[in-house]
Write a structure and sequence with these properties.
A: alpha/beta; elongated; B: two-stranded antiparallel ribbon
Chain lengths: 307, 133
């Protein structure tokens, strides 16, 4: 399958790397030759529909799931052979709640979790729990989805790990808590400079934080690039066209999304704006607008592209 | 000072932050030697990547609008208000109006004439009319 957008970053140094990662569940291919590249200090948003392989990828990095083939590394340490060392460097917010000890109270869970991390900052944990409006006496088994997510966020952040793997971190949060979470993540970034890999299907929420984006679909990483490059290279062109207009042969391979009416088009195209404008003009189109595309719309254009 | 950005704005976020500082300076809501919020403070407040704030501050420093006092933060420079800043702000407004006009097939002369006509009937122009065009 061809990819219109770049899938390799060429940036150094990398905090997270995978090479030709493959994973099957029976007949279903969860990951196909995935080469993930997350630069140090990046906020990398991994976008894809449900079931695209996002959670599997995060779990392989933590060695909670083993790949069939390929390599996964965090700061040069192999997830597979240095699992404990890798996990010690990671703060993880898992997809589901899945407490194995529902009878424990929030305070006790945090205390228990803290003993695994020498860098645990009790004061910071309390500040986070306060901001998240968490009661220490609540039983974790009785927490709502959103409350459980907030407990996991405290557990992930309070030891200030160099890497955060956040699987749908705002899932189940109400609008106020979602906003609060984004603020705390921005504050955490400013303070620690941590590398964040955020898996989500709600791109607009993390749009202001993200500096890298990866698009995964059907287990394949179909795009991976710096958000600045995406912003520069992807435009939505709106133009009047003559009847029967079919584009230009040199341009058509770079079109991510086509919306056509009889004499007007709105195409999302990857390429240098000057080149694209010249080609559209050369083929008889009158361009009215070449608009920058939001991360949300860019992800939508990439994900809705017909194979 | 108040710095406000919008997700639906076509300008990149760092440019929006720069324009907000310029706007505050031109309107006189901030004075030379006034401090800007710290990078961490503003990033947290706006829910944006701290590197984006850093980029805006770096560009503002390069343009001489702000200066950095080591260990103390970023401050508005003496030379920060002048014709050049006003021109830059006005230029941005004009560019956005032109893009909108071109998208709608409105020519330059038509736009200028209409600006005069609309301004004559609306004072001050603080809200976009809600009636259909």
């Amino acid at each position: 399958m061809s990819s219109i957008l770049p899938t390799r970053l060429g940036e150094d140094p990398l905090a997270i790397t995978t090479r030709s990662l493959n994973k099957r569940y029976g007949k279903i291919a969860a990951l196909i030759d995935v080469d993930l590249q997350v630069p140090e200090g990046a906020v990398y948003v991994l976008v894809g529909p449900n079931g695209a392989g996002k959670t599997t990828l995060l779990k392989i990095l933590l060695d909670l799931v083993r790949a069939d083939s390929g390599e996964a590394e965090v700061f040069g340490l192999s997830s597979r052979s240095d699992g404990p060392a890798v996990r010690a460097r990671i703060g993880y917010v898992p997809e589901g709640a899945g407490w194995g000890y529902g009878w424990m109270r929030v305070g006790r869970v945090l205390e228990h979790h803290s003993t695994y991390y020498p860098t645990w900052d009790t004061e910071y944990a309390e500040r986070l729990a306060n901001a998240f409006d968490l009661g220490m006496d609540q039983k974790v088994g009785k927490l709502s989805k959103g409350e459980a997510r907030r407990v996991h966020l405290v557990m992930a952040l309070a030891h200030r790990p160099p890497v955060l793997l956040l699987d749908e971190p705002t899932d189940g949060l109400d609008p106020v808590m979602r906003d609060e979470t984004l603020g705390l993540l921005a504050d955490h970034l400013a303070e620690t400079g941590a590398t964040m890999l955020i898996s989500t299907h709600l791109v607009h929420e993390t749009e202001r934080l993200a500096d890298h984006i990866g698009v995964i679909r059907g287990g394949e990483l179909q795009a991976q690039l710096n958000v600045d490059d995406l912003r520069r290279g992807l435009r939505r062109y709106r133009a009047e066209v003559p009847t029967g207009w079919t584009g230009s042969p040199t341009l058509n391979g770079s079109v991510l999304r086509r919306q056509n009416a009889s004499n007007e088009i709105q195409w999302t195209i990857w390429g240098d704006e000057g080149d694209v404008l010249a080609q559209l003009k050369g083929s008889g189109a009158t361009v009215r607008e070449a608009a920058a595309v939001s991360l949300e719309d860019a992800a939508l254009a990439m994900l809705s592209r017909k194979e | 000072m108040l710095i406000s950005i919008s997700a639906s704005d076509a300008r990149p976020i760092y440019v929006q932050i720069m324009d907000e500082v310029r706007r505050a300076r031109v309107l006189g809501t901030i004075e030379p030697d006034d401090p800007l919020p710290s990078v961490r403070q503003l990033a947290t407040e706006l829910r944006v990547n701290p590197n984006t704030v850093q980029q805006a501050y770096r560009e503002l420093e390069r343009e001489g609008i702000v200066f950095v006092r080591r260990g103390q933060g970023t401050f508005i420079a003496d030379s920060s208000v002048n014709g050049a800043q006003r021109r830059l702000l006005a230029r941005g407004v004009a560019e956005r109006a032109l893009v909108d006009a071109h998208r709608n097939g409105v020519g330059l002369d038509e736009l200028i004439a209409m600006l005069h006509e609309v301004a004559a009937g609306q004072s001050p122009p603080t809200t976009n009319p809600e009636k259909p065009i």
